[in-house]
């Protein structure tokens, strides 16, 4: 039998057992949500509690993970996630090996077996995480050294924007390191492939299972690697086919004028539900096929004991029905909430990111003026201190990206800055642009737009907060500005200095409750936004802004979700999207929301005209 035939037969065998595998998969996933989620929440809460903050963001997360407590918490969380996967796969493998045909008996028997081996399974999960980390650490360290050697002379944005030779050296070297790590991991994981079976079916200790598996897999690893590659390829092809069919069905949903919106939403929900159901069946079938593939490599030394299931089905049936009813009610509530959001008027403000950074060189007066002309409610800029104590508008730590000049901001004087052309990199038309001061920007915006001042820190700040305060008060613009920062202590300091001023937390990633942090608003990466986060932030009396939103479909989706501000490089486009949405019927808004929800987008990276 060829490798391909072996894998296709595994999928066929898994599909033949779908009445066992799918219900067992769903039931175990629900069980894990109830059992594993609290453990993960405890680990996250521990991390947050050690910081005396309601949430950890970006730099705080990195610093915490580098601490002993943070490393232990990370290992625990990873182990819990892995244990969840081990648990589901173990139930599949147990059901398969026990040969049960009835889903309830198969699931009950497999779960009984797994619970009897739970300590060993948890030990196996922890040891697997630690072994993978042990293997990966030298490679990660090597990649870090390469990055430090090649990509730290200038600001990282210079390398990401212009891809100089040093960037490609780093890409090639780190790529080779990653490929080597992948080869090492595949080699070791293929050797450990039977470890779970040994723990489950031969009562092997979690430590001994790895070496025992390696001995039994001698001479079989190449075949396993090939079959796993084929297994993954088949799963990806089936998933793509399901997505294609779902796209065709969504295209048939009637959204033209006069169609009942609830009817359209119901049809859309049905299509989305069928897509999710198909994905669930695929996940269960593919995992079952993987169990079949690995089971073919396992030759037990003794017969696996069967654990009889209880003859009473009342309790599991009641639990399942309760969960199903709850899921339906939640779905109806979510659908109603979505419908209300789609029909509600927008209240999002347009915030020009570094001015109008898609149309003019970022953080220049040209970009600031353009954002104001394009109707931005706010202009967002970045500020730092020069060597002679002037607050200037600059994002990067140096001038390499904007001018090719190797000069750190904190080493530059205003005389130096006045000689640096920061516009030609964008277009020769802007060769006269120079780095503006905070006073320049505030003066231009006064009476026309408000300004969000992001405080940038690279470890060389002297008195940035007080200097910003002095400039704002000198111009009398206390009511027309807000400050924010990735550095949470800076937000706290600004609130302490001027409690009545708007200040917010900027976060690319976060764990914990962002709404519990000090400040008047949070600004988060659009990829991390969810209706739940928006609701919590609003309930705490704060606003939520999202960045950086340049795709008109995503702009519309964020507005439908109820965000308070769109931070965008294209304020004119955002203003036009909001204008068009105000003229749209609910059906058209629903169409835009569905388009974004299911992955459609418009590439605006190459657009430099003013058209939306």
Would you write up a description of this structure?
This protein is of the alpha/beta class and 612 residues long. Among the domains are: 3-143 and 220-306, no CATH class; 310-341; 354-476, Phosphatidylinositol (PI) phosphodiesterase (TIM Barrel, Alpha-Beta Barrel), CATH 3.20.20. Helix content is 60%, strand content 10%. The protein is built from 23 helices and 13 strands. β2 (349-353), α14 (365-373) and β3 (378-385) form a beta-alpha-beta unit. The model is unreliable at 306-314 (pLDDT under 50).
Number of helical segments with 4 or more residues: 23
Structural class: alpha/beta
Strand arrangement in the largest pleated sheet: 2-3-7-8-9-11-12-13
Name the quaternary structure. Answer: single chain
Quantity of strands, as a count: 13
How would you concisely characterize the structure shown here?
By secondary structure, the protein is an alpha/beta fold. Helices cover 60% and strands 10% of the residues. It has 23 helices and 13 strands.
């Amino acid at each position: 039998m060829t490798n391909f035939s072996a894998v296709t037969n595994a999928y066929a065998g898994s599909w033949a057992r779908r009445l066992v595998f799918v219900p067992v998969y769903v039931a175990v996933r629900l069980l894990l949500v109830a059992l594993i989620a609290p453990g993960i929440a405890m680990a996250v809460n521990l991390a947050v509690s050690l910081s005396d903050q309601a949430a950890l963001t970006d730099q705080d997360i990195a610093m915490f993970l580098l601490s002993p407590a943070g490393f232990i918490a990370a290992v625990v969380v990873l182990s819990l996630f892995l244990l969840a996967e081990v648990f589901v796969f173990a139930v599949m493998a147990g059901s398969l090996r026990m040969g049960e045909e009835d889903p309830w008996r198969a699931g009950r028997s497999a779960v009984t077996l797994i619970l009897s081996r739970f300590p060993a399974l948890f030990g196996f999960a922890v040891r697997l995480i630690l072994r993978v980390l042990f293997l990966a650490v030298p490679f990660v360290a090597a990649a870090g050294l390469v990055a430090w050697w090649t990509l730290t002379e200038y600001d990282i944005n210079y390398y990401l924007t212009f891809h100089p030779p040093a960037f490609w050296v780093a890409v090639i070297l780190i790529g080779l390191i990653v490929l080597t790590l992948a080869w090492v991991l595949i080699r070791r994981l293929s050797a450990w492939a039977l470890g779970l079976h040994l723990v489950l079916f031969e009562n092997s200790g979690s430590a001994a299972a790895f070496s025992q598996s390696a001995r039994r897999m001698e001479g079989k690893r190449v075949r396993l690697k090939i079959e796993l590659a084929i297994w993954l390829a088949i799963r990806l092809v089936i998933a793509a086919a399901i997505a294609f069919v779902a796209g065709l069905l969504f295209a048939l949903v009637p959204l033209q004028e006069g169609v009942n919106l609830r009817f359209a939403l119901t049809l859309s929900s049905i299509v989305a539900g069928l897509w999710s159901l198909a994905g669930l069946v695929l996940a269960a079938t593919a995992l079952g096929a993987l169990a079949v593939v690995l089971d073919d490599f396992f030759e037990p030394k003794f017969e696996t004991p069967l654990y009889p299931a209880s003859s009473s089905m009342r309790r599991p049936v009641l639990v399942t029905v309760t969960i199903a009813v709850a899921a339906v009610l939640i779905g109806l509530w979510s659908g109603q909430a979505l419908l209300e959001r789609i029909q509600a008027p927008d209240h999002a403000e347009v915030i020009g990111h570094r001015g109008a950074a898609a149309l003019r060189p970022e953080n220049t007066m040209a970009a600031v003026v353009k954002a104001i002309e394009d109707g931005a409610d706010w202009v967002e800029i970045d500020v730092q201190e020069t060597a002679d104590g002037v607050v200037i508008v600059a994002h990067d730590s140096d001038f390499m990206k904007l001018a090719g000049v190797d000069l750190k901001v904190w080493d530059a004087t205003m005389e130096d800055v006045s000689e640096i052309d920061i516009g030609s990199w964008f277009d020769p038309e802007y060769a006269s642009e120079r780095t503006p001061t905070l006073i320049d920007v505030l003066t231009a915006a006064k009476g026309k737009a408000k300004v969000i001042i992001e405080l940038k820190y690279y470890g060389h700040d002297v008195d940035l907060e007080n200097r910003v305060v002095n400039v704002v008060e000198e111009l009398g613009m206390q009511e027309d500005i807000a400050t924010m920062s990735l550095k949470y202590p800076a937000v706290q300091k600004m609130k302490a200095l001027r409690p009545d001023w708007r200040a917010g937390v900027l976060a690319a990633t976060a764990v914990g409750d962002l709404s519990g942090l000090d400040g008047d608003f949070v600004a988060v990466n659009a990829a991390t936004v969810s209706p739940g986060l928006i609701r919590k932030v609003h309930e705490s009396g704060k606003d939520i802004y999202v960045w950086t939103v340049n795709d008109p479909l995503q702009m519309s989706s964020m507005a439908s979700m109820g965000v308070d501000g769109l931070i965008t490089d294209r304020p004119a486009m955002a203003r036009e999207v909001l204008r068009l949405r105000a003229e749209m019927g609910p059906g058209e808004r629903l169409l835009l929301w569905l388009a974004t929800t299911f992955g459609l987008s418009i590439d605006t990276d190459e657009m430099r005209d003013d058209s939306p």
